[in-house]
Amino acid sequence: MPQLPTRPRVTRVRLVTLVAASALAVGGTAGLAVTPAHAASNSVVISAVYGGGGNSGAKFQNDYIELYNRGSSAIDLSGWTVTYYSSGGNSGGTTSLTGSVAPGAHFLVQEGAGTGSASPLPTPDASGTLNMSASKGSVVLRQNDTTIDTVGYGAVESSYVEGSSAPGMSNTTADSRTKGCFDTDDNAKDFVSAGPNPLNSAAPVGVCGTDGSTQPPPTGTPSTIEQIQGTSFKSPLTGEQVKDVRGVVTAVNGSAGFWIQSTTPDDDPRTSEGLYVYGGAGMVKVGDDLTVAGKVTEYRPGGVDNGNLTTTELGSPNIQVNSSGNELPTAVEIGSAGHVPPAQTVEKGDPGNVETAGLTLGPATNALDFWESMEGMRIQETDAKAVGPTETSYGETPIVPANTKDVTWTPDGGVLYRSYDTPNAMRLILSDALLPKDSIAPANTGDSYAGVTAGVLDYNFGNFTLMATRAGTHQSGGTTRDVAQPATKKQASVATFNVENLAPSDPQTKFDRLAGQITTNLAAPDVLAIEEIQDNTGATDDGTVDSTQTTDKLIAAIKAAGGPSYQAKWIDPVNDEDGGQPGGNIRSVFLYRTDRGMTFVDKPGGTSTNSVAVTGTGPWASVNYSPGRIDPTNTAWDDSRKPLVGEFLWQGKPLFVVANHFNSKGGDDGIMGRYQPPQRSSEVQRHAQATLVRGFVDELLTANKHANIVVLGDLNDFNFSKTANIVKGSGKTAMTDLIDTLPANERYSYDYQGNSQVLDQLLVSPALAKNYDYQVVHTNSQFYDQDSDHDPQVVKLAVH
């Protein structure tokens, strides 16, 4: 499991179909049938459509299209048109518009007449001859061939619709926008069907919507972006209505919103010049200079109660486009003079909740403040280095500037999380969400993106994120998978490997690739402790607990890969009591081979609820159950995996192996969250678990101080943690945590958000610590095409 719980894989960005936009690299959707992208708008929307004019029962003789100006300036309609499309997408003609529409005013376009007798429309502001369907079709408003607004009504089959279709109409009903003529870019949400009520330029100003709601010109306190952002973690204007907010659009987030940045920055390094505007994305394009009004809000990804920071936003915007095609503000070069994030100081002192502690940002000394002071701004990195693999499902890669200092680099180009005081807070998550699919090549740890990688700085689920609008050229760092040397005839090889929720329903390719790692990269160890073996039906919560199908499928794949014939031992858990993926019933399993002198000492009687115990003394020290579990009913193991004990004989000599998978770090505060310093609440249970495991080891060593004991697995904690120290013990009976014997920069088995770290450990008793050959076999944690998120480890032992 990761250092923190896996975040929900839905973000503000992922809720929408994404349309990339950048003055440097223009993107669009790839392989998707989408509504034509909206562009420059002066807040003019289609406020009503009616196609039943002159038909039987119709109130009015003519069809009509009604416009409304939501902005605060008059709009010249020269060059503007309205086009009607049938439900299948065929054009039914175009009407050119002239004149202007005042702020808060309507503009009525009269279209074709029916043959029946009915009342004339109010005096139209423009006229055409379009014959529109009374039930389903589309109307598109354009300015010089650029789409401004689209309304699809009824069950339209074409792409001329925003979101879902507005209701179908009839001879006696029109589709009109709802309260205030707000525009969410979803026709189904924005329109209702009601009796036709055409409004022309003589209608009351500021009145729009089926309920006669008013939308007066923008009100609020005149504000700059810098005043909205303020000098702390939350806006001083939260909840207030502001207006006259000026900025240039720097990136568009599909239909959800967009970022603007001031072109007249202040001299205060604490105040960001960027701001996210939630809504109205269909009205703007990159390079538009805007004047915006709206309500200042704070958005917390994941919900109000989690530890994430908030992002300052401007909601329910009223947008006026002043000009288009403007040059974008220069992106801040991260890593350049004056813009170097403090790598190892997230937040000085002990402020607790930084959003309520009354702090003023100190970007020169605190990494959290450094990034917060540029929230929503354009930033870039040159020759950015990937310090973790790309998570390809979400297009996210942890990166740092090429000239990063004050870190411990791993041999393959990652950065080491070597203590709680070295958080490596200069890391960013590079996201491709604003770019077309596959625009950014996936990276392994140690790869780089040559040239400029630029975009806007956002915050999502515990991490500051570079929402890229331009990416550098991918360059391989040459990182390759490790291969361990086979054990000699006299060496017993023992390994641990978390295979990440392995179930029979997983693709055969996963089994085959894992088998290749076990056979080739681990050199087919004599004993393999595997964590996260699921039951026969995987995550289906149907009461199944047996995992024979899972282990059989893996064993067969190993054999097919040229490996030995392994046998398996485990104890089925009580259904749904060992944590992990609901219904999966994950457990630890021993795989072992007998062709080199390893045998399993089978002592029946161990169950999911009874406890293994030490029997005998001296060379006769043993256990009552093999396989067995350590105190499985102890509350320390609630909703968590129980350790699996196995007694083996290596060429006739006893060897005790304890396979572990401690409880996850779910619930801990994030490194870059609002609570500083982060609290690690999940440690309490792991400390209790470590104490029980250490107690069992002490019992064995008391019975026989020369006992050969291996404690291994996913301890879900760092090698420098109290959890690890409890298991190690002290004095003459201290176990050796073998990862501590490696050079400092090689101590990692996992990568979480760009921090190379230890979660898996392999410890040996004093008798085995005299002669061994140990290796973390890096086959997964550094690679985007990983088969598990953990690296396996193997030790070759001289068992006496």
Question: How would you describe what is shown here?
Answer:
The chain is mostly beta strands. The protein folds into 4 domains: 44-194, Immunoglobulin-like (Sandwich), CATH 2.60.40.1260; 227-323, OB fold (Dihydrolipoamide Acetyltransferase, E2P), CATH 2.40.50.140; 330-475, OB fold (Dihydrolipoamide Acetyltransferase, E2P) (Beta Barrel), CATH 2.40.50; 492-797, 4-Layer Sandwich (Deoxyribonuclease I, Chain A), CATH 3.60.10. It is built from 7 helices and 45 strands. Strands 32, 35, 36, 37, 39, 40 and 43 form a 7-stranded mixed beta sheet that branches. The two termini are 35 Å apart. Mean pLDDT is 92; it is low at 1-41. Pfam families: Exo_endo_phos_3, LTD. Residues 35-155 form the LTD domain.
What is the compact description of this entry?
It comes from Flexivirga endophytica. With 800 residues, this protein is mainly β.
What are the salient characteristics of this protein?
800 residues, mainly beta, Immunoglobulin-like, OB fold (Dihydrolipoamide Acetyltransferase, E2P), 7-stranded mixed beta sheet, 6-stranded mixed beta sheet, 45 strands, 30% strand, elongated
Derived from helix and strand composition plus strand pairing, the structural class reads mainly beta
What is the oligomeric state here?
Answer: single chain
Domain module tally = 4
- Indicate the radius of gyration in whole angstroms: 32 Å
Q: Helical proportion?
A: under 10%
In the predicted model, the low-confidence regions spanning at least 5 consecutive residues are: 1-41
Architecture blueprint of SSEs:
Blueprint: E1 44-50, E2 62-69, E3 75-76, E4 80-85, E5 91-96, E6 100-101, E7 106-113, E8 126-127, E9 137-143, E10 146-153, E11 174-177, H1 187-190, E12 191-194, E13 221-222, H2 225-229, E14 241-253, E15 257-261, E16 274-278, E17 289-299, E18 311-323, E19 332-333, E20 352-353, H3 367-372, E21 378-386, E22 396-400, E23 415-416, E24 428-431, E25 448-460, E26 463-470, E27 473-475, E28 492-502, H4 508-521, E29 527-533, H5 548-560, E30 567-569, E31 587-592, E32 598-600, E33 614-615, E34 622-623, E35 628-629, E36 644-650, E37 653-661, E38 675-676, H6 683-703, E39 709-714, H7 722-728, E40 736-737, E41 750-752, E42 755-757, E43 760-764, E44 772-776, E45 793-797
Parallel strand pairs: 7-8, 13-14, 16-18, 19-21, 23-42, 24-26, 28-29, 37-39
Antiparallel strand pairs: 1-2, 1-11, 2-7, 3-6, 4-5, 4-9, 9-10, 11-12, 14-15, 14-17, 15-16, 17-18, 20-38, 21-22, 21-25, 22-24, 25-26, 25-27, 28-45, 29-31, 30-31, 32-36, 33-34, 35-36, 36-37, 39-43, 40-43, 41-42, 44-45
Signal peptide: 1-39
Organism: Flexivirga endophytica
Protein name: Endonuclease
